[in-house]
Amino acid sequence: MENVESDPKTDKPKSEIKLLSASVFVDPYEEADAQIAAEREKEAQKQEEERAQTSASASKAKTEDKPKSFRAGVGKYVNMAATKHSHPDGDKPSTSEAPAKKPKGRTGFGDFSSW
Questions:
Q1: What b/e sequence results for 72-99 when a residue is b if at least 16 CB atoms lie within 10 Å of its CB, and e otherwise?
Q2: Ranges of Basic and acidic residues compositional bias (predicted)?
Q3: Of 35, 6, 1, nearest to 18 (Cα)?
């Protein structure tokens, strides 16, 4: 293939090249299959170790106390009695000071006559 003349513009050979035979010295699939099998073996061992560790931690988790449920549904673990805020003057909220309102800002485009 290297000795055949080629067109300098396209680098295509001027005459047709045919491959009549090919020789394979080493089968690359045998090496790849052996490598993949070794990787799968290592992965299986890792998964087995992780399963052993998770089963040990799962048994510990089962023995631990579960959180106390105060009601059913959303927020069932929230103790509403502990989260209620008590006012210093009793149960009445303070109404002596009303929150200050923000002054409304100017809306719209305004006057462009000075442009």
A1: eeeeeeeeeeeeeeeeeeeeeeeeeeee
A2: 38-52
A3: 1
Computed over every residue of the chain, the mean pLDDT equals 81
Pick from 44-53, 61-70, 71-80: least confident: 61-70
Give, in order, the Cα–Cα distances in Å from 84 to each of 68, 80, 87, 91.
Answer: 18, 6, 10, 11
The two structure tokens encoding residue 93: 């909220």
Higher pLDDT, 42 or 89: 42
Residue 31's CB is within 10 A of a number of other CB atoms, namely 10
**CA angle, residues 88, 91, 96, in degrees to nearest 5:** 70
Amino acid at 40: R
**3 Cβ contact list (under 8 Å, min separation 6):** none
pLDDT of residue 47: 94
Q: What is the mean pLDDT of residues 34-49?
A: 95
Query: What Å distances lie between residue 58 and 44, 100, 106, CA to CA?
Result: 21, 55, 62
